[in-house]
Amino acid sequence: MTRAPVSPCGRRPALQRSTGDRGTELGRFLQSVRSRLRPEDLGLAGDGKRRRVAGLRREEVALLAGVSVNYYTRLEQGQNRNASPEVLDALATALRLRPDERAHLHDLVRPTHATKAPRTTERVRPGLERMIGSFESGPAVLLGRQTKVLAWNHLARILFTGYIDLTGRDGDVEPPNLARLLFRAPGARQLYTDWEYEAQDLVGYLRLMHGRYSGDPELTDLITELSSNSREFAAMWSEHRVWDKSHGTRRLNHPEVGALTLIYETFRLPEAPDQAIVLYQAEPGSPSEATLRRLLEKRER
């Protein structure tokens, strides 16, 4: 899936409050999605008139979804928050939403999690933490809804501590918050070979979590902090893109051993769907497998 280019950094985009009204968030999400679609991609014949804005018009979305233009306009304007699941599914189909985007649309209208007051501190079951720590085939992390690493194994720790000082007050290496690491930590852009791609993925994950847990004050504070301190984060956040990748490839450049290409798989916990286990491995017999082994041996000398 291609990513839209980051907005030019010469001018800071206007920030949208992450704590905004859910009706407003719904409208901005719908506007963002329809602006990225072309009529010809959806089988709509052009009328020959020059379009003032990119993407679909409101009347075209309404036609595809089988609702009135007035009804759809009220949705985008945040004036109608009682859309039925059937209408939302029709809109999701009309706008060609992926499953994660479809879920986000439903969360914005009828959140299943946001009305609950989440615990400020996410807890990790001791057995799960031991399992993460004992994984030896590659780096392993448990990621929370605020993109904080809740648990990690030895290989994950040594991958991060090459460029980035994560030493806490007691001298221990503290698990990072990945969003803060990507956008604010010196050295992160050197560590992540595809930094912009990784950053857009992570912002999309935060969008998904914010749709589910808009009542989480710690999550809201994180988004506000990053929007205020990172021009790139503010630009990506304003695009209203949603991502929830279950697998993929991550390219790193460790200062001690050089380039690494790792594949990863993500597993959700049934009793805690906002927590994700992410397991990394190098392809068997690949140069990255040898590099990962060399890094581990180097640190254990």
List the helices and strands and how they pair.
Elements: H1 22-35, H2 58-65, H3 69-76, H4 85-94, H5 99-109, H6 126-134, E1 140-143, E2 149-152, H7 154-160, H8 178-184, H9 188-191, H10 195-212, H11 217-229, H12 231-237, E3 247-254, E4 258-269, E5 272-281, H13 287-299
Helix pairs in contact: 2-3, 2-4, 4-5, 5-10, 8-10, 11-12
What does this structure look like?
It is a single chain. 43% of the residues lie in helices and 13% in strands. The protein is built from 13 helices and 5 strands. It has helices at 22-35, 58-65, 69-76, 85-94, 99-109, 126-134, 154-160, 178-184, 188-191, 195-212, 217-229, 231-237, 287-299; strands at residues 140-143, 149-152, 247-254, 258-269, 272-281. Helix 2 (58-65) packs across helix 4, helix 8 crosses helix 10 and helix 11 packs across helix 12. The longest helix has 18 residues, at 195-212. The radius of gyration is 21 Å and the shape is elongated. The model is unreliable at 4-20 (pLDDT under 50).
Number of β-strand runs: 5
Structural class: alpha+beta
Strand content: 5-15%
Task: Walk across the major sheet and give the strand order.
Answer: 2-1-5-4-3
> Which bin fits the share of residues in helices?
40-55%
Q: What distance separates the N and C termini? A: 41 Å
Shape: elongated
User: What does the radius of gyration come to?
Assistant: 21 Å
Mean pLDDT: 82
Question: How are helices and strands ordered from N to C?
Answer: HHHHHHEEHHHHHHEEEH
Enumerate the spans where pLDDT stays under 50 for 5 or more consecutive residues.
Answer: 4-20
* Main sheet attributes: strand count, strand direction, barrel closure: 5 strands, antiparallel
Helix count from the secondary structure assignment: 13
